[in-house]
Amino acid sequence: MVRISVLGAINWDINLFVERLPRVGEEVPVKKITRVPGGKGGNVAVAAARLLGPGEVALIGCLGNDSIAERQIRILREEGVNISGIKLSDEAESGQAYILIDEKGNNFISTLFGANLHLLPEDVEKPGIYDLLMEAEIITLIDPVIETLEAAASLARMHGKTIMWDAGVRSRMGAKRLRSILENVDYLLVNEVEVKNLTGETNPFRAWQILHKINQNIKLIVKLGERGCSMVGPEIIVSVPSVNLEKIGLKVVNAVGCGDAFLGAFAASKAEGLDDVESLERANLAGALKATKPETRGSPNREEMGRYLKYMAKARIIRKT
After folding, report:
1. The pTM is what?
2. 285 phi and psi angles, rounded to 5 deg
């Protein structure tokens, strides 16, 4: 039975590893190139499936009717992701991302959205996709076109689902334009740049105060990269510090996909019945472990998470009412 349904992009990632990122107009040599599956929707679905097991997570998205789609679907099946909600389009090629990564894990990303833009609002009401939305306990929204996000969020709220949204690139549209989605969201996940784009604030509490005027029950989770994460909600403010990778004997290799591993682990933890604080701690650990892997979908499986749980950074509860 599907417990989590993820709506989001499926891309083929071309990773270019360099010693350092170039300045404008500068050429730098590529030390290594990899071609791997990615896209935030695919990454999150795989991250959650690795922790929950086969058949527990469904991915809803769109691919082109091409060779990339064949590879993506085969890989997702091997990861145990339910792919019955993936639409094939003859109008565009499958999404692709071109990622430049330096030795510290910093990156530049350029994306061809392609078929990802062809998951339409009416698709969420169609048999197959609708069934997956109704079956799941948790609906995880990421980056479909805005009208599809609105339709999915409204439908999920109408049926009492728990809704998580990684606003990502959509955050640039601002809270006012995104109000119809924010009104329906239980957990909003953004990074530091995105929370500023969305609310005009960098302080998580002040940002939450703005969002609270739109949705009194919303919980804001801000991903702080190497500094951990924080969560602000109506009843609690929590801060989770970074995981000490050096203590574990690991180092950062590639930060691309850490936020996706974070969200996948958070959703999986909530699906397993864990509370917000422990789910946040596990998500923080999953994001850190992913950073030690070169591949975009380097999120940990259940065994790996279990092995490193003793190194999980503990949350600091700043306020609880």
Report:
1. 0.92
2. -65, -45
